[in-house]
UniProtKB/TrEMBL annotation:
Pfam families: SnoaL. GO terms for biological process: polyketide metabolic process. Residues 81-93 have a biased composition (Pro residues). This is SnoaL-like polyketide cyclase. InterPro entries: Cyclase_SnoaL-like, NTF2-like_dom_sf.
Amino acid sequence: MDIITAVGGDHDGLDGPVAARLRVKRLVAEGPCLRSAARQHFEYARHMFVFFTDNKISQIYDISDDDDGAEKPEGGQPQCIVPPPSLRPPPPRTSIDMRQFYADYIACLNSGELAEDLHQFCKPSGVVWNGTLMSVQQYADMIQASLDAISGLFFDMHTLVVDEPRQQLAARIEFTGTPVKPHAGGVPNGRQVAFAEHVFYWLEQGRISDVLSIVDWEEYRSQLAR
């Protein structure tokens, strides 16, 4: 494993949480584990929120996007994770209150008024979500699909870590709601679900420009299969 990006650390003289995006490399041998055996290289991402007490790890929340059931690339070509954005423009001279900005963003998602208000939080030219450039409307449609599939879907901001000089945020969001439509491989069973997302954001001129997200859809599906 190696650290791709990290946010957090000491905050207000306390041992603040650290959010990290990790790259996990895996080598898979085809057939007997011999030097001559063909090998495939794969990568997957882990998003971890690590909490400290007295400079020692006290709690960890961990979500990965590894899926052993996913189709593997042919020919031994490496499967690589999406890198963080590069060549960032300088932050604005007058920074926004990033914590309040994110609280307002979550309030917008919970209000369901995406068409009216989401553009206030996103870069006008679009948002790069997990390596894919989306218009603000496409980004809104993706979020709306989850709202439509999970009745009463509520976004609860469990943890927020801010790096103002780099205009970067990391958040653990905890979701609750009752699925009413098939979604993310899960079939509704009438029960409420609770699952989480670990997500990193980059801002440009006070608007979200890039997002790297891992949602714990495995936990979501497991609750619907019970």
